[in-house]
Amino acid sequence: MLIDGELSQTNDGSETQFEYDLFVIGAGSGGVRAARFSANSGAKVGICELPYHPISSEVTGGVGGTCVLRGCVPKKILVYGAAFRGEIEDARNYGWELNEKVDFNWKKLLQKKTDEINRLNGIYKRLLSNAGVKLFEGEGKIVGPHEVEITQLDGTKLCYSAKHILIATGSRAQRPRIPGQELGITSDEALSLEELPKHAVVLGGGYIAVEFASIWRGLGATVDLLFRRELPLRGFDDEMRAVVARNLEGRGINLHPRTNIKELIKTEGGVKVITDHGEELVADVVLFATGRIPNSKRLNLEAVGVELDGTGAVKVDEYSQTNIPSIWAVGDVTNRMNLTPVALMEGTFFANTVFGGKPSKTDYSNIPYAVFCIPPLSVVGHSEEQAIEQANGDILVFTSSFNAMKNTISGRQEKSVMKLVVDAETDKVLGASMCGPDAPEIMQGIAVALKCGATKAQFDSTVGIHPSAAEEFVTMRSVTRRVAAGNKPKTNL
């Protein structure tokens, strides 16, 4: 593994001089973190990023990257906005006298969202500047193991040598290859729609699909959610997937399991959606939430010899180093665990390894994550299915399904569900899940416990905060089911 301090040598034994110790291509979360922390360790760092635009493309991007500009942050702002509809409905049973008609101003929320991402774009630029990182605006590509070429906005090209090159270009939404696919939009456009849709069709069963379905339904639109599996959120705990599906339907979203789109046709009334079952829907917006692909196509990587996998993701080792010793990669472009906090961790560990004198491997175990549907789902550790598949012995499953205290007054028929998966022999908690209000806020603390190897006995001996939903995690005393090693899990939903 190549780390700083081992200067490259020419054939005559003299040291090779580089213009930068590190040059980063991509100023999203991972790239900015790696650049700043490397600079803080004394490295001379340059970074390039595409010009900002709300809709990403091969030639547009922006400092801050997907999460800040067209991902987690603007999406969460819209989730907050959409959640108020349910809050207003619930408020009436708490004594609030509200008019029957409550108006919503989409353009005002959209402008507030835009103002916030513009503010964050400026903050990220200042973070780089304050760390002494030189920012270039333009498209970067690698033309040699130690050489980066930047095409600036006016078309002129700059070339710089760097001892280390870091690829942090993230990923982009992809569209399905179906007739009329140009009539649909991706999550980029969904965050910048001029008008709030009256009827939206969402294709997909992952994070983005259920989140936008919740957002648009919460803001008053009719929403049809189409997905290929029996339940949304493939890869999550099956029992919790069923809870999410039930909640989506309870909020008024029309679910179409085992359904795909065959064709889109433009009509006077909107976009006609023809499904593979022959069903026809007419909507004013069709969202493709059908996955993302790594942004590696225009980096010239094959010519330099950097290995890619079949999806175009950059292959790296456990230190984020490619097969070319001077070239590294972090974040979604590597298609490991595609979460913003993971990209931040990978960027930190890269800087520690290469410039901090502390070789560090990213630990991908017990990483918590959340799906911001309404209400949200959050998990850490193994699902029941994963635990059973990997276990040598029996698995104990503890569940709690209850009406949140708030719902007992509001009358909302929507249960919160919590789950712990435990190794029967060691008593170690292998996984935790929750679907309900504040699930991500609660799960962050549970993640610390799992990272420390907490046992079920330690959960049981912890005093709960009363009255709260979170206390259920430390009061689940009775085993819901015991699954023998090798048996398929059985849910009670």
UniProtKB/TrEMBL annotation:
Binding site for FAD: K76, G140, T169, G170, S171, D332
GO MF term list: flavin adenine dinucleotide binding; glutathione-disulfide reductase (NADPH) activity; NADP binding
Positions of the catalytic residues: H466 (proton acceptor)
Residues engaged in binding NAD(+): G204, G205, G206, Y207, I208, A209, V210, E211, G291
GO cellular component: cytosol; mitochondrion
Catalysed reactions, semicolon-separated: 2 glutathione + NADP(+) = glutathione disulfide + NADPH + H(+)
Domain Pyridine nucleotide-disulphide oxidoreductase dimerisation as annotated: residue spans: 367-476
EC top class named in words: oxidoreductase
Free-text cofactor note: Binds 1 FAD per subunit.
Cofactor requirements of the protein: FAD
Disulfide-bond pairs as recorded: C67-C72
Domain of life: Eukaryota
InterPro entries with a match to the protein in the record: FAD/NAD-bd_sf, FAD/NAD-binding_dom, FAD/NAD-linked_Rdtase_dimer_sf, GSHR, GSHR/TRXR-like, Pyr_nuc-diS_OxRdtase, Pyr_nucl-diS_OxRdtase_dimer, Pyr_OxRdtase_I_AS
EC assignment: 1.8.1.7
Quaternary structure annotation from Swiss-Prot or TrEMBL: Homodimer.
Known role: Catalyzes the reduction of glutathione disulfide (GSSG) to reduced glutathione (GSH).
Family: Belongs to the class-I pyridine nucleotide-disulfide oxidoreductase family.
Identification of the protein by name: Glutathione reductase
